[in-house]
Write the structure tokens for this entry.
Amino acid sequence: MCGIIGIVGKAPVAERLVESLKRLEYRGYDSAGVAGVVGSGVERRRAKGKIKALEEVLTAEPLTATTGIGHTRWATHGAPNVANAHPHSAGRVTLVHNGIIENFAELKAELAAAGRTFESDTDTEVIAHLIDAELATGLAPIDAFKATLDRLTGAYALAVLIEGAENLVLGARRGSPLVVGEGQGEMFLGSDALAVGPFTNRVIYLDEGDYVALDHDGARIFDASGAAVTRPVRVVPTSAVMMEKGNYRHFMEKEIHDQPEGCQRTIAAYVDALTSRTAIPGDVDWAKLERIQIVACGTSYIAGVVGKYLIEQLADLPVDVEIASEFRYRQPALRPGALVVAMSQSGETADTLAALRYCKAKGMKSAVVVNATESTMAREVDVVWPIHCGPEIGVASTKAFTAQVSVLTAIAVAAAKARGTIDAAEEQRLVKVLLEAPRLIAEAIHLEGAIKEIAADVAKARDVLYLGRGPMSALALEGALKLKEISYIHAEGYAAGELKHGPIALVDDKTPIVILAPHDSWFEKSASNMSEVMARGGQVIFITDTEGVKHAPEGAKVVVTAPASDPLVSTLVMSAPIQLLAYHVAVIKGADVDQPRNLAKSVTVE
Ligand code: F6R
């Protein structure tokens, strides 16, 4: 996981690799390393802990290479130690990786059966072996790289050196971002524009599935099918790099696309991918806990509602979720045996903070699921559960929402295991399901083209209704909230079972009705709500998955087919379509997407 830099340079690169890694420190890491082409070989320098430790290694053993790669690792597969630190080497190949290779265990078994031995516990090392094995068949580096990429399942950004291929750095991205930087006779590769920022302001954002060969002549870029492509060069003002929108028009659009990586980084902090076990930081005795009280506002509240469904169902642990502004003034009956969990992107929302303090004053243990780890809430609680999706700039919350849901999902699994409602095998299965979510979210984001077309119709509506059951009823609230806050179209989110108790009166042939129905235990019921709505002339936008589409009633105006997923992660997967719908409607309407009228990113007054 984490930061990547690659340089094809004219002068020794070690110092610049380290300089770039320092720029990436904000992403969090627990070891760091660099490698470079030296003569006919590749040399590595790695260290556990901070970059300072790597600098000490480099002082003792300088690296003279003019082409090299560097990495800051945040442990996912295997402990933070030197053996697991990147770069990893096998035969002629040395590489760094950001992401998770889901099928690494099968690939590792296959490589071990072929006589290959491994130095680390990482998923990354198998990629180096696979490329090396392809090179051994006589393939050229770029073809050996492509043949390997075709075998990987999961999300990744990679930077690769090959022995004997001087002045060459290969890169690829799927699910994790990667940028190319153009210098004067030098080329750069980075996990974000910040990584290459010290050396150039000419940046190419690689598209999903792209791979690239960098040498002194420039970048040769290929798409996922292997066709040579060109991608636009953008000139990025250096001071703006941190807040850079990349190829996106708005921060919100970028942040929707950031979600596979944001969730991946978050999930990696709450599970041990190597053992497929949960690993929730902080001292909470899940087995003895009597109750969880979630307090939050807006989208963070909705994330809490999704958490309630998962935690109660899996762990048989009662969870109350309440809007903080109500909770703080109504003198709720609280008991010290409960844990209060504040949910807040900013960690500063006045009502949530007040509700949290109220619970603390009643003697409750406290925790916060938060993005801003230096915020007031983070400083005041007993346990901080950070989301690791990076700063969220768009006022409408997107990637913080899915990262918050990721944390609560890991907590649901951990609490269930601790309380004996699931066994160790089920815990492992569910952790594997959770680790697959970033890839499925990336696939759901690919529905953007289809959603843009739907948005053109929705933009003409005066009212929109969102319906769902189970966790999808919470997502219906979120869909409606996103649409109204950025496009100013009136929208309501409802638990679909409530339809007959009121909202069905709204149904006419001008009101789009978005039904969220993955193929889960609620599917039949949601499908029957769809029929009821259509019988009254309603224009249904049916958002389902590849299983649900086989069983959906005929007659929806539009069917959107997201990838099928386990119910544990279906909220994560179905989030992108509703966020993209709100986004494209707002763009069509010419609204100020990132700064909607009357709204602030951090609501520090009640
Ligand atoms: C909606 C949105 C808001 C926030 C709410 C809470 O898109 O962003 O509803 O979720 O203001 O903010 P935090 O999470 O910072 O406490």
In short: The domain at 446-588 is CATH 3.40.50.10490 (Rossmann fold).
